[in-house]
Structures are given as C-alpha cells and as structure tokens.
Design brief:
The structure is a single chain. By secondary structure, the protein is of the alpha+beta class. The chain folds into 3 domains: 21-67, no CATH class; 71-127; 131-345, no CATH class. The chain is built from 10 helices and 8 strands. The chain has helices spanning 2-18, 21-24, 37-45, 130-156, 164-184, 193-211, 222-238, 242-249, 256-302, 305-345, and strands at 50-57, 63-69, 71-77, 85-90, 101-103, 106-111, 114-117, 122-125. The strands form 3 sheets. Strands 4-3-8 form a 3-stranded antiparallel beta sheet, with no helix packed on it. It is globular, with a radius of gyration of 25 Å.
Length: 350
Amino acid sequence: MSRKYLIINFVFLVSFLTNPTILFADDNAEGDGSFNPTDMIVHHIKDDYGWHLYDYEDDNGEEHSVSISLPIILYTYEGSLGNGTLDIFMSNDFHHGEEDVQKGENTYRLDHGHITELGGKKILDFSITKNVASMMLSVLILFLVFFSIAGAYKKRGAKEPKGLQSFFEPIILFIRDDIAIPNIGEKKYEKFLPYLITLFFFIWFNNLLGLIPTGANTSGNIAFTMTLAVFTLLITNISGTKHYWSHLFWTPGVPLPLRIIVLPVELLGIITKPFALMIRLFANITAGHIIVLSLISFIFVFQQLFVGVVVGPVVIAMTLFEFFVAIFQAYIFTLLSALFIGLALEDDHH
C-alpha cells in the first residue's frame, strides 16, 4: 500500500518540478507569474462551491480550469422568512466568479468564496459544497464497505475472514476490545459500540479522502468537527446516570462553600470536553495540510531544481506521515468519546 502512495506522490512531485502551473495556475498573486504561497495554501484547505481539479493552457496560451460543478441551493428572502424564494442552479453558472447569476428577481454574485444577493436580500445557503460532496462520498464508501463485510459474515459465518473482511475485522475488534470495553465497561459497551465504530471509520475515511490530490479538507473544517463533537456531547449527557449528574451539581465529599465554586467549573467541563475534541481534530488535520503545502511552496518560490530535489523527499515523507495521522486522529477522537461516555455511565461505588 505504501509503495503505491510513494509512486503517486512521486508522479505529482515530478509534475510540480516540470510545470508548476499545472495545478496552481490560478494561485498567482496577480496574473504576472508571481507566486503567492498564502493564496495557494488557503485555496487548497478552504471549502468551495465547485470541486476544482486542475488548470491547463490551450494552444493559444489561454488558461482553462477543469472542475466538477456542484449544486447551489439558496433560499433568499427579504423581510419575513416565509416570503422567500428557493433558487437551485449549478456552481459553473458563476464561471469561477467571473459572471453573476440571474434567477427571477434575484441576482447572485460569487465573491471570494461567498455568495451574495446584489439586491441586499438575506440568503440561507443549503448548497452542496466540496466538503459536503466529499462527506457524502465517504458515507457511500462506508455503506459499500460495511454492507460487503456484513454480507461476508452472513455467507461465511465463523469461517476465516477473507478480502475486506480480513482487513477491517481486526480494526473493529480493536475498537471493541481496546476502546469500548475498557472505557465504558463490559456490561454497557454494546449499546455504544455502533456509534464508536461509525465515528472511527467516518473520520478516518474523510481524513484519507483529504490526502488525495485535489481532495477536500473535510476534517479541517471546524463545522465538521463541531458536529461530531456535539454528537458525543449529546450521547454522553443523555446517557448520564444519576451519580454522574449528582456529581456535577452537588459534588460529594466537598465542603458546602467549595461546592458553590466547583459547580460552575463542573458545568463548564460539560462544554470544554467536546470543545477539546472539536479543536484537536480540526487543528491537527489542518496543520498537516498546511505543512505539506508550505514545503511544496518552496519549489515555486525559489524555482530551483536543487530545492525540489531536497524538498521532494521531505514532502513524500510528510505525506506518508499524514496517512498515519489520519488514522491516529480517528483513534484519538473515538477513544476520548468512549472515555467521556464511560465517565457519564459510571456508577456510585461508595
């Protein structure tokens, strides 16, 4: 597996060295051939209304962008929310922000990644962005993988696993035996195991998709990590036992004056735990992408072959390390979620 990724990264590295404008033609600071690393990095880690693949020049020297058009879904209203209009069109109607889109009485403009209505109307944006499309793709992969594994279990029973089943079974058993049972308990873990397994593979698959060239930085989106953290927050507190809530609101064994001080701290802890989950995943994945893209930027800034020779192996090593980070961050998020759930389910031992 690692050999294939080495080959893929080597091919892309060669393309960087031979013709940098192939992938980053639209990241020039002004059209004068100068390279702006900040613009390039921000462009590749932020969300977008289309799925940009690459740029190329035709025989006449004109630049063309190849991208996958995604649905734009906007609910536009003025004054009362109930008097709005629903407009649906494709992102390529903007022609990469060069043209406005007219839909009935509404005129939309794409400016620096944001859609505005030129008449000053308010917009509720339900568009399928690049991150959303990548997330849907990861869900599709999850369904295909686990329906295939479930079918193999029904067909083969307790026989030796083969194919996908042999690859994923040790990981599933690891989540059960080393994450769920030690943190939640052998008597209570089964209720939460499906969530933990789904959480682990959903994060892992999205992290892997983000490492594919032109892939979406889904796990590096704060809204994505916040939603997952909120799920853990809700499951933890809804499942909390009487002992858990009494410990929060009236900590036993603590003098009365100190209980008044401890109470807001304990209540704040309800929020800080999922907040830490959210920031940890977001920061680690985003930082990894920024480091790799920053290293690649050296090639374009200095435009020297020896820089590419030196930086190239480092980029490949960092990219391979990112594959480890992808599964490690999924493990950490799942482990901490199991730990928080287990603390909420803990019984009073006194």
